[in-house]
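Case study 2.
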Amino acid sequence: MSGATLIGGADPLVGVPSGPGRLPPAFRLGVRPTGFAQALCYRSILSGLLAILLCPTLAAAAPGTLKVRVKSATVEMALEPYVAAVLAGECSTFRSDDGIKAMAVAARSYALNLRGRHAAEGYDLCATTHCQRLDPAAVTPRLASLAAQTAGEVLWFEGKPAFACYSRSCGGTTEDARAVWPDLRAPFLRSHADPYCARQGAGEWHWSARAAEIAAGLGTEVAALLAATLARLCQGQVAEVRSAFEIERDEDDYLRCISDKTAALMSTACRIGALTAGLNRSEIDDLSAFGEAFGMVFQIRDDVLDVVATEAELGKPPGQDLAEGIYTLPVQRALLDRVVGPKLRDLLGHPLDETEREEARALVASSPGISAAHEIARGYARAAAAAATRLGEGLIPKALVEFSYNVVDDLQGSAVRVLAPS
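Prediction:
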């Protein structure tokens, strides 16, 4: 099994056969009896005690059936046929029988650890690589036999089936679990060299697919979400085009427009990530709310930078929105200012040449519109931070909170470097 990081050194991971009457190696205590009867007595006592201690745990870990989502249907599968189907889907090309048996133990442990991952959707596990890839139709007698030879064998950690993840290849060095899942306690998944990996070194690779193919592979909910997001994007773009060069465009129209464009896109990206990660519904909604609010912050920041930043900072000529008649939040607030508003109103309403564009930029940059836009962005940053906080106390929620405020603080720094009107 390439990239296996399940057992090594003094890691506290033990293999436990979960069948009745089979004691785990970790509990086969060394006894020095003075005679056969004493040895038999010790072993009987130990066996009885361990049976009392372990049987409830082992029974709980070995369910009669698993509910598995296979394509568009939910089917019930006994654990061992499920493991054989995983072998067919994940490692049917393995030549080594021992490698396949090791894989069977890992797959069984992984399934028991993640059982109920899709409980909110009415089943335990899916049949894709989000959980483990199943191919029941491809189970051969060899795979079924090798799975049966390990029947009931499970890797355990701290009293429950271990998170026995695996990968096809690691490039010669496995990743540390803490780098991938900061909140996961899995000291047995440490980074280490893997001299058996078939792909030594950091070889280049690439993968490509159509967006529709990716959406279909992620399930009907994601496909429907992408369709709804595309509709919002089109709606926002049409609204923006219709309002071009309209000096009287109101703020609510601007906010609806960026909500349907940037905010919708970021909310969808966060929601798809939450769905594919198997989060519960409240977490999915909170992460989506974070994306929506953060998208508003991001777009307002971008609109302010279009006024105050330089071409070197933006990587494109600034003031393009002004020149093309897209009057964003800082421009709308500047138009309301008694000092700058009248002059700016005389310039706008038609396409601008370079001189007019720079004059309009300077007027907006010197107006209260920049600071007003910053305050509105900060309100959305607070909303994003509140949504992220509801996700818990882990490193990722805290990073999202910090990220929200960092973006708006960067905007405030940009607002200090305003242009003086010519």
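The first strand starts at residue 14 and ends at 17.
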